[in-house]
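Quick start: read one record
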Amino acid sequence: MRRTRFQLSPALLDATPSHPLRTVKTGLLTLLALSWLACGEAPQPPSLPANGPEGSWHQWRGPQRDGTAFSSDPQDAGAFGTPKIIWRRPLGEGLGGIAIDDGKALVLAAKSGEEFLIALDAGNGDELWSTALGPTFLDGHGNGPRSTPLIADGRVYAHGSRFLVAADLSSGRLIWQLPLAAPPEWGFSASPLLVDGQLIVHSHLVSDPADDSAIWALHPESGEILWTSGSGHPGYASPLAAELAGQRQIVSFTGQELVGLHPATGQRLWSHRWTTSYSVNAADPIIFPGDRIFISSGYQSGAAMLHLSVDGAGTWQVEEIWRSRSMQNHFSSSVRVGDLLFGFDNATFKGISALDGQTLWRQRGFGRGSLIATDGGLAVLTEDGVLVLVASDPDGYRELARLEVLQGDVWTPPSLAGQWLYVRDHKDIACLNLAG
């Protein structure tokens, strides 16, 4: 829904009695100060597009699902400036990330024990609509939903605490919904993946009481179950698509293993056992050239670089190139920059070599932070809500700028659309301009 400065949109309530979920569509009432009549239009920062950010971060971990946003043209690469807060607003409880596309920012949050899928105007933070998804997840480490919405083809897909849903992007109207079974100990954290016309989720759906599947493929238009795979704990990482050893596949890091699945059937191609205390495999795998995959977990599990191949008999082989405790991703995923990996070894921010796992440098004082990689360097969010811009330098830690944005227990990685960075904590959401 596009809005101009003078357009007024009254709030509408669309409730369907036969439906357990309801959609609340709210509009923006634009207030104009009387002084503008005398002084003219309020000045706008020249670096900010009038209709919001130029760019998209339409899913968990961004366009490539790897926590990076690099320009294909070096001339378009944007350098960091002095970050400035554009807007900030109350949001609600939750740990899920923010998806940005078509001028909208989509996020899951809980208010007064109820969970909502919320669409905000990405340019100014005003609420466009919200759809209630039932009671939220309660936990001593933080209440609320953990997953990040996926925006595609005029729809938004969201994995809440009680329902998996598809909604119309423009209005929030629910297209379909599927009830979820009991969540794992720390809630459903995986975010949906759209690949080859299928919606892939790590979850437990209420379809058959005897079905203990951990990975589900659904038809995105209807929610019809196409196939299931795996069993037991779905883990806390999100699925991704990759081509390895000449085979397109879905890579899933579940509670007990890393596995590759045929995208059309869910057939198991290969697996690599990886057990972690409490089944907390939470950081996403990272695909490297040469049919390699990096994985990392906390609780003393450490990290490994794996190599995938297929022998002459068509049998898949998984080889550990190296294994080390130099990078233990508790829940925040690392990012790849060439042959470098940057991430959080528990509460220590590090750069390591992807070739052998050796530590290149380390920096304390961030807590269990999160980060993304861009042309300008690394955008790092500390656990207590400070944004720190850091050079992606193998030779040592080099800080470029910092700005206090949020407060306390910030476990959600940033999202980036153009030069606009979106961050959240358990209460608020904020947008910053990295170009200054």
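The CA atoms of residues 333 and 340 lie 14 Å apart.
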